[in-house]
Structure formats: structure tokens, C-alpha cells
UniProtKB/TrEMBL annotation:
Pfam families: LRR_1, LRR_8, LRRNT_2
Gene that produces this protein: LOC108834471
InterPro entries named in the record: DNA_repair-toleration, Leu-rich_rpt, LRR_dom_sf, LRR_N_plant-typ
A GO cellular component entry from the record: membrane
Tree of life domain: Eukaryota
Subcellular localization(s) per the UniProt record: Membrane
Annotated protein name in UniProt: DNA damage-repair/toleration protein DRT100
Claim: Transmembrane is one of the keywords in the record: yes
Topology with respect to the bilayer: Single-pass membrane protein
Domain Leucine-rich repeat-containing N-terminal plant-type: 29-69
Length: 372
């Protein structure tokens, strides 16, 4: 049987094919240049995060925190977290600390879908406005740093953005109007900054949003009525702001909402009965406001609160007897009000301490050890 030898042409094809595979999987030279500029604006002295970012290695294969599209070789993800269970952190036995700023060169990474530079504690400066030109961005997580300035005005241009986390920074200014056009946004976290102004009246346009965490800022105005139309919203935190006005009745009729933190604001008026009778809430914190009137007597067998905090208000009257019929109440705090009368017997009152009822006008019985 005659053995066929490979032709020079077939050998050449094999070499070309192997070369093409190599080219496809290599880091784009322009992206590598952009990453080097990005690195040059940052300093991480303890863990050696950037030691792998060498000119002699492929940024798609060997650079810590970098991922690429396997076909194009374009950089798609920067994932650098200062708190991680990754081996490099385990070996050092410490969390990370990074200083510097975000270089505008990051905007040259035009295929970028995820920018995570979170929990480094020392990164400062502003978010480059050009970041809104990165049309593929789905995740922006810059939480836990010292970033200043405002949320980019044209943030709404990032039509694919699903996660925006700028929490625990030093940002200021107002929520830009364009933010409410982020139709794909599912997670918004701006907690613990200096963001001021009112919550946009069309905030409810964010139909896909499941978590809106805006606590510990300088927000003013009332709770926008458009929020009532957010059918996927499960977690709303407006705590420690300057929100005023009444708590809307419709808040207790949002079917998915299970965590509501409105504490430490300037809310007034009565507590809507719909909020306390809803079977959907797990955590409800209305403490440290100026709420008044009685606690609605609307609890029932489907009421389930892991935590219910109504403390530090101007609530008066008796503790409603129906609270004893609740399916479950884990933590209850109604201290620092103007409540009167006997503390009901049975659950949940039999497992609560005196601090849950202290500093009221004339409550008696139960753990207070005060005879009625």
C-alpha cells in the first residue's frame, strides 16, 4: 500500500491554521496598551496584583483579573476586588489596599462588558466621563473606595448596564436624569455617599430593577409615586437621608417588595395599614422619623417579619392585640414612642427584652417589670 506524504501545500495550510489560532487568542495590542495606562495610574503595594501584568505575557492568558473574548482577543472583563477569597489574598492573609485613580485609558477598551475595581479603600479621583462610551458595559462596580465627583451625566447611554454599584465612596451631586433610562438595570447601589437632590420623579421607569439601595446620602423630597409600578423591586433602602412627607399607602401593595428601610428620615403622618398587613415584608424599618398616630391593628396569620422596627417616632395608643396573631415576628422594636397600656401576652412578646419597649409614655407589663 502506497503511503501518501503530506504535500508542501497542506503543510503550509497547517502552519497558517495554527498561526490563526494563536492570533485569535492573543490579547489585542491596543487593549494591552490601554491596560498598561490603566495600571500606571494605580498603586497596589502589598499583594503584587500587577506583577502578572508583564509586557512579555499575553494579557488574555496571564494577567490577574483580566478576561478576554476567546475569538477576538478583545478585553471584556476587568475584575479586581480588594476583598476576595482568591489564593493571592489567602497567601498574604490580608485584604487589599490600592491607591491612585481610574485612568481615562480604560475607555479605549471598547469591548469591555464588566469593570470591577471594588473594595480597595484608597482609589480616588473621579469616574472618567468617557466611560459612558463603552456600549457593551453590563457591570460597573467601584464600591468601597474614595471616589469623588458626580455620577457621569450621560450614564443613560449604557443601555446594557445591569449592575451599577458606587457604594461607600465620596461622591456628590444629584442622580442624573439619564439614569432612569437604564432599561436593563437590575441592581443599583449608591449607599454611603454625599448624593443630594430629589429622587427622580420617573425613577419607576427602571422596570427591571430588583434592588435600589440609596441609603446614607443627602437625598431630599418625597418618595416618588412612580416607584409603585416597579413590579420586580424586592429591596428598597432610602434610610439616613432627608426624605419627607407621608409613607404612601401603595408601598404595602407592592407584591415583590420584601425589604424596606426608610429609617432616619423626616417622614410624617401615620403608618399605612397596608404595610403592616402585607404578607410579603420580611424586614421593615421605619425608625427615627416623625411618624404619628396609632400602630394599625391589622396583623394576621400571614404576617411574617424577621425584623420590624418602629422605634424613635411619635406613635401613640396601645400595642395592637392582633400582633399576637402574626405568623412570625423575630425582632420587634417599638421603643422611644408615646405608647400606653399593657404589653400583650404570648408570642412574639414572650421572647423580647425590655429594650424593645423602653422609653414609652405608659407601657406596662411584660418584660418591663412595671405593673399595670
Amino acid at each position: 500500500m502506497t503511503k501518501l506524504l503530506p504535500s508542501p501545500f497542506s503543510s503550509l495550510l497547517a502552519v497558517v491554521f495554527i498561526s490563526l489560532i494563536s492570533i485569535v487568542h492573543c490579547c489585542s495590542p491596543s487593549d494591552q496598551t490601554a491596560l498598561n495606562a490603566f495600571k500606571s495610574s494605580l498603586s497596589e503595594p502589598n499583594l503584587g496584583i500587577f506583577n502578572t501584568w508583564s509586557e512579555n505575557t499575553d494579557c488574555c492568558k496571564a494577567w490577574y483579573g483580566i478576561s478576554c473574548d476567546p475569538d477576538s482577543g478583545r478585553v471584556t472583563d476587568i475584575s479586581l476586588r480588594g476583598e476576595s477569597e482568591d489564593a493571592i489574598f489567602q497567601k498574604a492573609g490580608r485584604s487589599g489596599y490600592m491607591t491612585g485613580s481610574i485612568d481615562p485609558a480604560v475607555c479605549d477598551l471598547t469591548a469591555l462588558s464588566s469593570l470591577v475595581l471594588a473594595d480597595w479603600k484608597g482609589i480616588s479621583g473621579e469616574i472618567p466621563p468617557c466611560i459612558t462610551s463603552l456600549a457593551s458595559l453590563r457591570v460597573v462596580d467601584l464600591a468601597g473606595n474614595r471616589i469623588t465627583g458626580e455620577i457621569p451625566t450621560e450614564i443613560g447611554k449604557l443601555t446594557k448596564l445591569a449592575v451599577l454599584n458606587l457604594a461607600e465612596n465620596r461622591m456628590s451631586g444629584e442622580i442624573p436624569p439619564s439614569l432612569t433610562s437604564l432599561a436593563e438595570l437590575k441592581h443599583l447601589e449608591l449607599t454611603e455617599n454625599g448624593i443630594s437632590g430629589v429622587i427622580p420623579s420617573d425613577f419607576g421607569s427602571l422596570k427591571m430593577l430588583s434592588r435600589a439601595l440609596l441609603g446614607r446620602n443627602e437625598l431630599t423630597g418625597s418618595i416618588p409615586g412612580s416607584i409603585s409600578g416597579m413590579k420586580r423591586l424586592a429591596d428598597l433602602d432610602l434610610s439616613r437621608n432627608h426624605i419627607e412627607g407621608p409613607i404612601p399607602e401603595w408601598m404595602g401593595k407592592m407584591n415583590v417588595l420584601s425589604v424596606l428601610n426608610l429609617d432616619s428620615n423626616s417622614l410624617t403622618g401615620p403608618i399605612p395599614g397596608s404595610i403592616l398587613s402585607s404578607s410579603g415584608f420580611g424586614v421593615l424599618n421605619l425608625s427615627r422619623n416623625a411618624l404619628e398616630g396609632s400602630i394599625p391593628d391589622v396583623f394576621g396569620s400571614t404576617t411574617y417579619f424577621m425584623s420590624l422596627d418602629l422605634s424613635h417616632n411619635n406613635l401613640s395608643g396601645r400595642i395592637p392585640d392582633s400582633l399576637s396573631s402574626a405568623k412570625f415576628v423575630g425582632h420587634l422594636d417599638i421603643s422611644h414612642n408615646r405608647l400606653c397600656g399593657p404589653i400583650p401576652m404570648g408570642s412574639p412578646f414572650d421572647h423580647l427584652e425590655a429594650s424593645s419597649f423602653s422609653d414609652n409614655q405608659c407601657l406596662c407589663g411584660g418584660p418591663l417589670m412595671k405593673t399595670c
